[in-house]
Structure formats: C-alpha cells, structure tokens
Specification:
By secondary structure, the chain is α+β, with helices and mostly antiparallel strands. The chain has two domains: 51 residues, no CATH class; 151 residues, Jelly Rolls, CATH 2.60.120. 31% of the residues lie in helices and 27% in strands. A seven-stranded antiparallel beta sheet has the order 1-2-3-7-6-5-4, with helices on both faces. The two termini are 25 Å apart.
Length: 225
C-alpha cells in the first residue's frame, strides 16, 4: 500500500547607459559627475536581482492530507455481516508512513466458512497522481466493471482461484476520491464443501464496504486547508 515540476529561473542582462555632462566644470566636480553613474549602477543591480529571482510554481492543492483510521471506517454491523465471528475492532497493518497509507484487516473462520476483509487508504500528492495510479491498477485487474456513484471513479473485479481443489473467490473494489485511493479486498472459502461463495455475495460485500470506507474518508479525512 503504496509522483513534480521545478520552478523556472529567468535571467536577464541590463546594460546601463551613462550620460556625461558636457560642461567642463561638471567633469571635474566629484559629486555631480558621480551621481548619474551611481544611480545607473544601482538600477542595474536592482534590475538584475529582480530578473534572476526564481519564480515560485504553485503547489497543487490536496483535498486529503491524512488518512482516517481504517479500522473505524466500517459500521460494526457491516463487519460482522461480511466476516462472521471476527472481532469488530480489526487489526491495523503497520505502515512505514501512516500519513500516506493505512490498512485494517478482519478475518475469521466460523465453522468451515472463512472470510477475509481489508480496507486500505492511500494518499497521493495530487488528483492527477491518484488518477494515474487508479488507471494503472484497473488495467492490471482487467475483467471487472465500473461501479457508478463510488467516489470520483469506482471499479470492481471478482476472481476465482483453486488450490488443491479448494476454491477461493476474491473481490477487489477500488475507488478514487480526489487525491486518495480506497482499496477493498474481500474473499471467502468453505473448507467443508471446498467451494467458494458466489460472485454476487463477494462483489456486493466488497462494494458495500467500499461505499462506507469512501464515506468515512470524506467525513474524517478532509484537511483544514
């Protein structure tokens, strides 16, 4: 769980023109002869400093500067319905930088029925950076479809895998909200029948969690600036 122009410096050269007085006595008078040269030198120095001062490029505004707690992003009723038998508090996965990425995980085996759910928030430097990351991830997980009304853009995909005759069905839902990405991973298996939950069950569950996680981001992750 886990992209900037440099300011342009302009340089100009100024060539001051010194005008000398024609009167003979003015040429020998220090104060009167030196004043124009001093003024021109000062103007040249000031103009050069102004021309060579670097211009400051505006920093893109970020809608979200910190991720909310992922373990409190879902309603307790949602957690218990998606992961029966789990502790609703969840377990936050350690991150090298919690201002950039935070993830919470729930999992439980109830009887022979196993469920796993992850909620992850990732913050980018700008909306454009988040859009590029979102587009790249959607391309990597082809075969799914858009989720209307989920953030600024939403996508869902469900895949079935089989390992030693045991099926596991996993759904991934991604949403972009301004400069943030919300990623939901939800999967399940039945160790008695060796079958997996239906695509509909996994997909709807993952989308439900994604909608609540996006709502939590918007209500608790907005920066004051």
């Amino acid at each position: 769980m886990r992209d900037f122009p440099l300011p342009i410096a302009l340089t100009a050269r100024l060539s001051p023109v010194v005008v000398l007085a024609a009167a003979g006595w003015a040429l020998s008078s220090g104060p009167l002869a030196a004043a124009p040269a001093t003024e021109h030198k000062e103007a040249a120095r000031t103009g050069t400093e102004s021309a060579t001062a670097p211009s400051s490029a505006p920093t893109p505004a970020k809608s979200f500067s910190a991720a909310p707690s992922p373990c409190t992003s879902l309603a307790k009723a949602t957690i218990t319905s998606l992961v029966p038998g789990t502790k609703t508090a969840g377990k936050e996965i350690r991150s090298t930088d919690e201002t950039v990425r935070r993830t919470c995980s729930w999992n439980a085996l109830k009887g022979y029925d196993y469920r796993w759910l992850d909620v992850s928030y990732e913050l980018m430097e700008s909306d454009d950076a988040a859009q590029k990351s979102y587009t790249s991830r959607v391309a990597d997980k082809s075969g799914g479809g858009n989720v209307p009304g989920l953030g600024d853009a939403g996508y869902s995909v469900v895949n079935l895998t089989t390992d030693d005759k045991q099926q596991t069905r996993e759904g991934v839902v991604m949403a972009r909200v301004s400069n943030a990405l919300v990623v939901i991973t939800y999967n399940g298996s039945d160790f008695e029948s060796k079958k997996a939950p239906s695509t509909d069950v996994i997909n709807k569950g993952a989308i439900k969690a994604a909608k609540e996680a996006v709502a939590a981001l918007r209500s608790g992750g907005k920066s004051d600036g």
